[in-house]
């Protein structure tokens, strides 16, 4: 008789659910993504938003990404994935697309920061825009890291 090798389902790592989400890479990046993205949204909202076309996109990307990531985190915590392989694909596609969108938002926020140097409330708005740029690039990096970590898992 031929020996049957291990099935492919047993060699695939299980998707975390419950508190294990916070200690399993790359899923542990979701909470920092949400927190840094929230800081981007708060810091941009604290300025006068003198460049609505640029900073409107930053606000849209940060708020939408924050909400979708929060729903994704809750679905992992509650175990909605039922260890389906499709969730890895969904997670990877979402984080990859969001990384690209966040990188574009970070560049636009950096441009808004440069343009805010000569504004009426120069020191305060420049500092808020600088902090928003920093957190936007940090959040983009976290999304990139998450997307590649899933891909190479």
UniProtKB/TrEMBL annotation:
GO cellular component, alphabetical, reads: membrane
> Which superkingdom is the protein from?
Eukaryota
Q: Name one GO molecular function term.
A: structural constituent of myelin sheath
Which InterPro entries does the record associate with it?
A: MAL (IPR013295), Marvel (IPR008253), MARVEL-CKLF_proteins (IPR050578)
Q: Where is the MARVEL domain?
A: 21-153
Task: Give the UniProt subcellular location, in the record's own words.
Answer: Membrane
Give the Pfam families listed for this entry.
Answer: MARVEL
Q: Which GO terms are recorded in the biological process aspect for this UniProt protein?
A: myelination
| Keyword line | Membrane, Transmembrane, Transmembrane helix
Annotated membrane topology:
Multi-pass membrane protein
Write out the transmembrane intervals: 20-45, 57-80, 92-112, 132-152
The protein's name is: MALL protein
Species for this entry: Calyptomena viridis (Lesser green broadbill)
């Amino acid at each position: 008789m031929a020996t049957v090798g291990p099935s492919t389902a047993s060699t695939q790592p299980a998707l975390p659910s419950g508190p294990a989400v916070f200690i399993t890479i790359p899923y542990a990046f979701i909470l920092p993504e949400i927190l840094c993205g929230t800081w981007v949204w708060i810091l941009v909202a604290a300025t006068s938003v003198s460049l609505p076309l640029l900073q409107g996109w930053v606000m849209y990307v940060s708020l939408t990404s924050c909400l979708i990531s929060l729903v994704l985190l809750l679905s992992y915590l509650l175990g909605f994935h039922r260890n389906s392989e499709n969730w890895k694909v969904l997670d990877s596609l979402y984080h990859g697309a969001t990384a690209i969108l966040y990188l574009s938002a970070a560049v636009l926020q950096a441009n808004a920061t440069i343009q805010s140097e000569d504004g009426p409330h120069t020191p305060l708005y420049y500092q808020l825009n600088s902090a928003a740029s920093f957190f936007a690039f940090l959040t983009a990096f976290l999304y990139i890291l998450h997307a590649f970590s899933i891909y190479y898992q």
